[in-house]
């Protein structure tokens, strides 16, 4: 079964906790702290596998967890890092947040592996918190919490040209004639239930990838028929070939068919309307001379004024196909080279959780102002204070959460010491 959608749960590894211990040896009665750092949690990594063309594997296995980092140990032993989990997806896979439907990552043109969820940073052991005033710290930093997410995977085929048209107008027959694809062909609606891909080879480095987009009928953009299942596959195409039944074998009106499907494409994604389009009037072998002239003239009169060229063809006999392919080949060559890529709409970096508590207090014995609580621990776990960007975030965090206001309310002055889980700094306004 072809699968172009899947919903999965992914979780990066938690960072290992820092360790609290002190050096204890026979001839070293007052050994200092020697608690080691925790290991980093494993990452969730996505990589494109050119050999895949469906998301079937993700229908069977829906939960993926990277390994947690090991906690630190005594004698300055660093905890082992957690193993990564690597998910292989077919080219064109788009990863979305299942709750909002917003794009997190588009794997359309990614040549290298991409880390989607970073493993938690390991907590620092108590050996890191020694200061001139604190020689025996009895605390260590907890490992950074694990990030987890439920995501939707959507496969949007990467093809230069998309074939659209009502069922039974001859798209599959056309694809079979011009490419090496062998789609199922029969005399009933919705024979094609999967997007078929094929390569048109015109020789001398000319050619393109073409996809038969099935199931587009009136109401497709609202989910009628199979349309919504496969409309996503046309979003990356550079050129559209609209195939119509010129002979009206099923009693269809070719002009009206083009208008209906154009409207469905516009409803689904208005950007598709601007793609170069040609109309292939198929089944001309079933028309007499009068019928041929009538229908072709009718199509030209309706659409050529908008720059849409009409090509009378017969997918069965091959008549008119060569001219069509060379014209489309030129359109593809003149189209932008880069693959249509969907911009990320979700930032998976740290977002402050306002529901977690924290406390700001003054420790008279040590003469320091103390900021602590789960919210502070989480912020420190996500923030690299050694980087400029991380320190800017830290300053913004103190301000937006009202921590600076609370410190001032407690009477803090210039140069006073502030402590956050072993981190100490002087306060300057």
Strands, helices and their partners?
Layout: E1 5-11, E2 44-48, H1 57-60, E3 63-65, E4 85-89, E5 93-97, E6 103-106, E7 114-117, E8 148-155, E9 161-164, H2 171-178, E10 196-203, E11 206-212, H3 227-230, E12 239-245, H4 254-268, E13 277-282, H5 289-303, E14 309-312, H6 321-334, E15 359-363, E16 368-372, H7 374-382, H8 388-400, H9 403-409, E17 417-420, E18 423-426
Parallel strand pairs: 1-3, 2-4, 9-11, 9-12, 12-13, 13-14, 16-17
Antiparallel strand pairs: 1-8, 2-7, 5-6, 5-8, 10-11, 15-16, 17-18
Binding site for GTP: 165-172, 190-194, 212-215, 282-285, 314-316
GO molecular function: GTP binding; GTPase activity; magnesium ion binding
Domain OBG-type G: 159-333
Textual characterization of the structure:
It is found in: Cytoplasm. It holds the Pfam family GTP1_OBG. Monomer. Belongs to the TRAFAC class OBG-HflX-like GTPase superfamily. OBG GTPase family. The protein has helices at 57-60, 171-178, 227-230, 254-268, 289-303, 321-334, 374-382, 388-400, 403-409; strands at 5-11, 44-48, 63-65, 85-89, 93-97, 103-106, 114-117, 148-155, 161-164, 196-203, 206-212, 239-245, 277-282, 309-312, 359-363, 368-372, 417-420, 423-426. The chain has 429 residues and is an alpha/beta fold. The protein folds into three domains: 1-155, Spo0b-associated Gtp-binding Protein, Chain: A (Distorted Sandwich); 161-334, P-loop containing nucleotide triphosphate hydrolases (Rossmann fold), CATH 3.40.50; 359-426, 2-Layer Sandwich (GMP Synthetase, Chain A, domain 3), CATH 3.30.300. The strands form four sheets. It has a six-stranded mixed β-sheet with strand order 10-11-9-12-13-14, sandwiched between helices. It has a five-stranded mixed β-sheet with strand order 3-1-8-5-6, with no helix packed on it. Strands 15-16-17-18 form a four-stranded mixed β-sheet. Strand 15 and strand 16 (368-372) form a beta hairpin. It is elongated and about 105 Å long. 39% of the residues are buried. Mean pLDDT is 80; it is low at 183-193 and 218-228.
């Amino acid at each position: 079964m072809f699968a172009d959608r899947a919903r999965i749960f992914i979780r990066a590894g938690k960072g290992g906790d820092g360790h609290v211990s002190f050096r204890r040896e026979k001839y070293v009665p007052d050994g200092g702290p020697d608690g080691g750092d925790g290991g980093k949690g494993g990452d969730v990594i996505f990589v494109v596998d050119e050999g895949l063309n469906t998301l079937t594997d993700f229908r069977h296995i829906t939960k993926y967890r990277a390994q947690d980092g090991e906690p630190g140990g005594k004698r300055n032993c660093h905890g082992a890092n957690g193993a990564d989990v690597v998910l292989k997806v077919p080219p064109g896979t788009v990863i979305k947040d299942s709750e909002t439907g917003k794009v997190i990552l588009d794997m359309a043109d990614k040549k290298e592996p991409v880390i989607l969820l970073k493993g938690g940073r390991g907590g620092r052991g108590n050996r890191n918190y020694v200061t001139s005033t604190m020689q025996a710290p009895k605390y260590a930093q907890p490992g950074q919490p694990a990030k987890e997410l439920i995501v939707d995977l959507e496969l949007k085929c990467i093809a230069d040209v998309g074939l659209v048209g009502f069922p039974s107008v001859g798209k599959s027959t056309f694809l079979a004639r011009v490419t090496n694809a062998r789609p199922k062909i029969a005399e009933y609606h919705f024979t094609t239930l999967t997007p078929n891909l094929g390569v048109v080879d015109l020789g001398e480095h000319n050619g393109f990838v073409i996809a038969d987009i099935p199931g587009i009928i009136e109401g497709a953009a609202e989910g009628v028929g199979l349309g919504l299942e496969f409309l996503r596959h046309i979003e990356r195409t550079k050129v559209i070939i609209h195939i119509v039944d010129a002979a009206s074998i099923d009693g269809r009106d070719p002009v009206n068919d083009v208008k209906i499907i154009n409207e469905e494409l516009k409803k689904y994604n208005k950007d598709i309307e601007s793609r170069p389009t040609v109309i292939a009037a198929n089944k001309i072998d079933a028309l007499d001379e009068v019928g041929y002239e009538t229908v072709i003239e009718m199509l030209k009169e309706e659409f050529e004024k908008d720059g849409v060229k009409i090509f009378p063809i017969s997918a069965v006999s091959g008549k008119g196909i060569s001219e069509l392919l060379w014209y489309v080949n030129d359109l593809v060559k003149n189209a932008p080279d880069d693959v249509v890529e969907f911009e990320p709409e979700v930032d998976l970096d740290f977002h402050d959780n306002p529901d977690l508590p924290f406390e700001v207090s003054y420790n008279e014995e040590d003469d320091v102002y103390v900021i602590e609580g789960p919210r502070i621990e989480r912020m420190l776990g996500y923030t690299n204070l050694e980087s400029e960007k991380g320190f800017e975030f830290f300053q913004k965090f103190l301000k937006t959460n009202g921590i600076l206001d609370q410190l001032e309310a407690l009477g803090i002055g210039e140069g006073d010491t502030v402590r956050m889980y072993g981190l100490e700094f002087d306060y300057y306004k």
